[in-house]
Input
Amino acid sequence: MMLLGLSAAGPGHGAPAARSAPQVVPDTPGTGPYSARKYVDPTLPDHVLYQPADLAALGGRKLGLLVWGNGACSDDGASVRLHLAEIASHGYLVIAPGRVLSGPGAPPRPQTPPPPGPLGVRTTTAQVAAGIDWAVAENERRGSPLYHRIAPRMVAVSGHSCGGLQALEIAADPRVHAVIVHNSGVFKDGTNPIRGITIDKSALRRLHTPILYVMGGPSDIAWPNGNDDFDRIDTVPALLASLDVGHGGTFDAPNGGRAAAIDVAWLEWQLRGDRRAGDWFRGSACRLCTDPAWTIRKKRID
Output
């Protein structure tokens, strides 16, 4: 394993990542009980992994698994590294497709960036889902550091913007038991302007597990799409939480900011059955419901 030094989307669903964490910001270990590390495993070289640095510190606690779709469906698996390390520090293996193209461990950026091309994916939905296949296999491979460390039913999928559409595609996988969509939603007008993504509102009917949308308020370009998704979902519990920060979310804030805290609570509630984590979302006096910074919509949650 190659350690990468723990101590993205643009304005639209498919725009090149323009707001990744600043290059000068060091990787951080997260605020959870298990300091996280970022690394590339040679058996999965086209992905970036985040996990507790000391697996022995988990004791008998099993890792949850989160696979992540990058903003702009980019190939920068470190584009929201602070956010993903924060989740990992709470006892999760997090896998993002691509390479380390921003922050510590990234190659130098070209002095003259290439001009933006047409909307299209650099990592596919299949590449995101491959993280599940790899982790499941490693969990059963004798000699793997992850041998019997992962709880097979504690699998979640998430993603930002274009990566959120990938998450919605993967959400139908019966191995998935929690879904989080950031600043995204299936295009409301029925168009599909991103090459490499084939999804329509019928994907919402294939959901089989509760889903959380984290949006950036009316200035979020995905605002109409995410809210329309929420309106159409009628078979599973759904919650839409919005913080008025725009399409970029809080990914660049220390430890992923307020959105990362919500993700951790959702995962702990949905995957581990933690009732205290559920208090963030459940009831009229839920933690998010009583926080004036957040706007909440929910159905079948209480």
Observations:
- The longest strand covers residues 150-160.
- The first helix runs from residue 81 to 88.
